[in-house]
Amino acid sequence: MSAARPLTLLRTVAALAALPLLLTACGYGSDAEDDAPQAEVAADAKKLSASEVKIGYFPNLTHATALVGVQEGLLQKELGGTRIKASTFNAGPSEIEALNAGSIDIGWIGPSPSINGYTKSAGKNLRIISGSASGGVKLVVNPDTIKTLDDLKGKKIATPQLGNTQDVAFLHWIAEKGWKVDAQSGKGDVSVVRTENKITPDAYRSGSVDGAWVPEPTASKLVADGAKVLLDESDIWPDKKFVITNIIVSQTFLEEHPDVVEAVLRGSVKTNAWINAHPDEAKASANKALEKLSGKALPAEVLNPAWESITFLDDPLASTLDAQAAHAVSAGLLDKPDLKGIYDLEPLNKVLKAEGKPEVDDAGLGVR
């Protein structure tokens, strides 16, 4: 994707007031639930420097590293006698609040709330320590009324929430087309309708929106209702990769328990390797975890295409996070942030080296 073009900041005060509402990719369930399965720990297993590590993630396919890692015991195995206490979240802000309050130590979360949480604390609350997933975002539309990208003009397209990761991406894409939309109201050459992912399928079926720029599995749910994929967001990024989920840690926990952080990262790296080596088993495991959390598994017509569009990887794709921040600035949703220090990839690179994998880059945004 080309670099964001400078645009005049619009309604900056109102935009900054809206920033705490930033979400990650779609999530289902309550804002914070101690409903995740808790791993079994052998009585004689050796503890690390902490007796437990509190992790948070979304009951969502783009967080499958956490879903599968917990479900299959791959994270707990690396932690030995240090017990995992897992909680699930629906929204990025609530997960950031939990991290700030010490309710979780490590979390799987999207780029927008990571940026927001870091900048609002003046760089003092979190570090991004790994990637987790790329992709899994699509523009899906009513094929009866929208057949080409140019047909979007004058139509109503849903995004999950003002300023969330997909909303920023869509606003930037609109600007790249040369169309005008007021970021706050969503009014303009395209009507951007902020709609919660869980009700977007109903909005589509009722005709309230003509399509949506949304993450999985919402995109595939819409396709199951007759929508068509008009654009995969991966296609507009260099190498078809962009961060959709990364792993963050409380700076305090990182300083006090580096061995625990390293163990979680080993578990994440090994989980991603297992997912990529056993995609069908991993897909079933993630769906089983979702069923436990939500009470309902995803049907095959939704699960299969959603899973295929997500890439699980350890690289945080730092340059794409920097680009997403620039897109939020160009849309008038964020003052230019100072992201220097948002990454600490030394623990991850230590793990990758031990696994015989190439090290990853922080795009000049590292703490070191």
Task: Reconstruct the topology from this structure.
Blueprint: H1 12-18, E1 32-33, E2 52-57, H2 64-71, H3 74-79, E3 83-89, H4 92-101, E4 106-109, H5 111-120, E5 126-135, E6 137-141, E7 156-159, H6 165-176, E8 191-194, H7 200-206, E9 211-215, H8 218-224, E10 228-232, E11 243-250, H9 251-256, H10 258-277, H11 279-294, H12 300-308, E12 310-312, H13 318-330, H14 346-354
Parallel strand pairs: 2-3, 2-4, 7-8, 7-9
Antiparallel strand pairs: 1-3, 4-11, 5-11, 5-12, 6-9, 6-10
In short:
With 368 residues, the chain is an alpha/beta fold. It is built from 14 helices and 12 strands.
Structure, described:
The protein is of the alpha/beta class. The chain has helices at residues 12-18, 64-71, 74-79, 92-101, 111-120, 165-176, 200-206, 218-224, 251-256, 258-277, 279-294, 300-308, 318-330, 346-354, and strands at 32-33, 52-57, 83-89, 106-109, 126-135, 137-141, 156-159, 191-194, 211-215, 228-232, 243-250, 310-312. A 7-stranded mixed sheet has the order 1-3-2-4-11-5-12, sandwiched between helices. A 5-stranded mixed sheet has the order 8-7-9-6-10, sandwiched between helices. α6 (165-176) links the parallel β7 and β8 (191-194). The protein is globular and about 65 Å long.
